[in-house]
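Student: I would love a firmer grasp of how sequence relates to backbone shape in proteins. Thank you; the sequence and its tokens follow:
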Amino acid sequence: MATIKNISGQALDVLSGCPLFKTISRDEISEYLANSGSKLCSFKKGELIFDMDDSPADLLILIKGSVDIGKIFLDGRRSIVTHFDEPGEIFGEVLLFLNKNSYEHFGEAIAQSEVLMVPKKYILSDIGIGIRIHQILSSNMINILAQKAFYLNGRVRLLLGSTLRSKIAYLIVNETKCDPNTPLVIGREKLSELLGAARPSVSRELMKMHDEGLINVDGKKIYGLDFDSLADLI
């Protein structure tokens, strides 16, 4: 873990497409990261980026790799709340700005990953970055939080689905955008954690939906076929 002084061109490419830095030039991004004391951290597969008891202090941006956000219950069950694998995705921002004392969730690298950590105070203040950049960052951050609220509303709808079948249908319709050529790519274990259901139950329901012509299951790829019927299940 090191404070950034000279960020790589590849990382800058990622950050240029990150919604936090929308309309900010590459040179301005480099200067901002150097002045803010941001850190670029590497994590091995299975390594925790943050634990449930850790205090949120930084805004986290995925540069490369994959990250699961989840929760471990008292009985040992693990539930995956969400997953990040797109370079430039931001995570940990909601609890950061709620001023929570702990994350209440864990963040785990599920592949070799790099994460940029931006100190909270340099997002909320114009210290060392100038008023113009501060105004842009603040506006972008508001937009990011609004989109996250919209996304979390969808997650609540998923978890409150009346049946396992309705949850699967909701996930397929929303993730594939009703495109029969776009699959939902996810393993059974990850899908079970996402749906909060036992893996055997999820596998049985997928096979039933496959046999009924609602979906096509091809390994880790799940294609929607009858989107009208899937939508009726939601």
Summary: The chain has two domains: 9-155, 161-233. Residues 20 and 140 are 5 Å apart (CA to CA). The chain has a mean pLDDT of 87. The longest helix spans residues 131-159.
